[in-house]
Amino acid sequence: MQRFSLPPTTYSLTGLGFGFSAIAYKVVRAYCTSIQRRACIILTVGVDKSWRPICAKHISIQANLNFTFVPLTTEGFVHWAKSGSYVLTLNVETEIITEYLVPSSASSSCGGVYYLSAVKYLSMLIERGGWSWEVWEMKPETGEWTQLPGIDLEDRMYEIFGGLREGDKPYRSFACIRRLLVPVGWLEYKEVLLYRLYCPRTRQRLSTCIAWNIRLKEFEFIELDSDLDGFFVHRNSLLWLDGC
To answer: Record's superkingdom (predicted)?
Structure first.
């Protein structure tokens, strides 16, 4: 096992990407330069002794706000995507950040918009009321969005609620659970999606997750050891950033 120490910095919101041509990991961090502007620094793990700036002057003020959110990683790219009309995508190889527009249905949505890592793609789910979502994927190289078949669990809502443990039923009526399900990540892209149960009234994350098999239209409960949600989604990696 190799262990690398990163140069000290006060900045948080860390992203991790892999450069395939150089066969090296790169760490990227966003930070504030002023009230309205944010910038990024980058470091090649095991090579650089100090952080290097990434040019972000071309990013619009509206899109620049995405730097305030925790980034997502896909193969060869790091993304800042949370709200608004834009996604910021860093090419780990070229170290160039590109500003992409999101589909109009996302920027005009009154419900939640959720971005997930999907191996080679950036996945986006748009809440369409109740337990139904519009599903999109973005190709990082071009910013091209493709709409996929949607997900609708409306007719399974009461069945899922009935299967919860007694300790995970903080509701007096079924009407309270309509905004209970929050997408967390893909266990198998386009096949199995993981949801976290969330109580909008108490602001509490429940310790139960739901794995929904899209093809079979079946679900499975996954019990966690706690209701904490401070985590990073990862895939096939034993790399750990100590202190990030």
So the answer is: Eukaryota
> For the segment 37-49, what is each residue's pLDDT rounded down to a tens digit?
888 999 998 888 8
Q: What is the pLDDT of residues 115-140, one digit of tens each?
A: 999 989 999 999 887 789 999 999 99
Amino acid letter at 158?
Answer: Y
Asked if residue 136 lies in contact with residue 146, where contact means CB atoms within 8 angstroms, the answer is: yes
String of DSSP letters for 112-157:
-EEEEEETTEEEEEEE-STTEEEEEEEETTTTEEEEEEEEE-GGGH
The pTM assigned to this predicted structure is 0.85
> How far apart, in Å, are the Cα atoms of 95 and each of 24, 44, 53, 78?
13, 11, 10, 10
Nearest to 100 by CA among 123, 80, 73: 80
- Which alpha helices (H) appear in the chain, and where do they start and end? 61-64, 104-107, 157-162
